[in-house]
């Protein structure tokens, strides 16, 4: 019988809209600069280039309605609203035409970023984990099942901070579509049930402060509310 030297951690999971079920999270992939306007505001070429990915840890997931503790060692934490794709099947070298068959559902997420630490890592040509993969850095609202809402390819993506609109975009502005992202990612990693993909953020990213109330929406998918603590 297998034993552990200490009790294993609880399985990170995301709620499923309208049910008491939980979606067990395996890996959290994030797509960088997937909206042209955001690429421009970050000082990069908005033209279509091969996508690139970074990762957050599954235990960084934070549920809807939770408090996001302002992290340490930073004075410049930014919000990035995104649609999240949840996979219930996996595979390698998935054809683009079959990619949506892997999808369980969709949610609304925020890619919190310690922008000052990320900028320093970029300048030194170092990995981004210190700016992206910190504790509680991946809030994600309940997942809407694709069997009920389909596979949204257009719809407003917005974020309000203290009832003031900060970010506005549309899913039809994604440089790389969801099937393209899944197919490309499956050539780099073997995908598996439980994988989550944060699909990129529209323009308007900016800093948050303690006490801020964030309200994110993806039309046809759902909402996410987070308070900065």
TrEMBL record:
UniProt cross-references to Pfam families, sorted A to Z: FAA_hydrolase (PF01557)
GO molecular function, one term: metal ion binding
Name recorded for this polypeptide: Fumarylpyruvate hydrolase
EC number: 3.7.1.20
Fumarylacetoacetase-like C-terminal domain boundaries: 28-228
Keywords: Hydrolase, Metal-binding, Pyruvate
Originating species: Hansschlegelia beijingensis
Keyword Metal-binding: yes
């Amino acid at each position: 019988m297998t034993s552990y030297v200490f009790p294993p951690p609880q399985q990170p999971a995301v709620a499923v809209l309208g049910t008491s079920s939980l979606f067990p999270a395996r890996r959290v992939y994030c797509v960088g600069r997937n909206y042209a306007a955001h690429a421009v505001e970050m000082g990069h070429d908005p033209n279509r280039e091969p996508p690139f990915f970074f990762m957050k840890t599954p235990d960084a997931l934070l549920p809807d309605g939770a408090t996001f503790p302002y992290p340490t060692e930073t004075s410049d934490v930014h919000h990035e609203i995104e649609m999240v794709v949840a996979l219930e099947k996996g595979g390698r070298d998935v054809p683009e035409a079959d990619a949506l068959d892997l999808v369980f559902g969709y949610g609304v997420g925020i890619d919190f970023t310690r922008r000052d630490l990320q900028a320093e890592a970029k300048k030194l040509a170092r990995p981004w984990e210190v700016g992206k993969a910190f504790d509680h850095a991946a809030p994600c609202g309940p997942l809407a099942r694709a069997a009920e809402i389909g596979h949204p390819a257009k719809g407003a993506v917005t974020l309000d901070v203290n009832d003031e609109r900060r970010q506005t975009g549309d899913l039809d502005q994604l440089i790389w579509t969801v099937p393209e992202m899944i197919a490309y990612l499956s050539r780099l990693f073997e995908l598996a049930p439980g994988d989550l993909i944060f699909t990129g953020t529209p323009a308007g990213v900016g800093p948050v402060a303690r006490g801020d109330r964030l309200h994110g929406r993806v039309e046809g998918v759902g909402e996410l509310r987070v308070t900065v603590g």
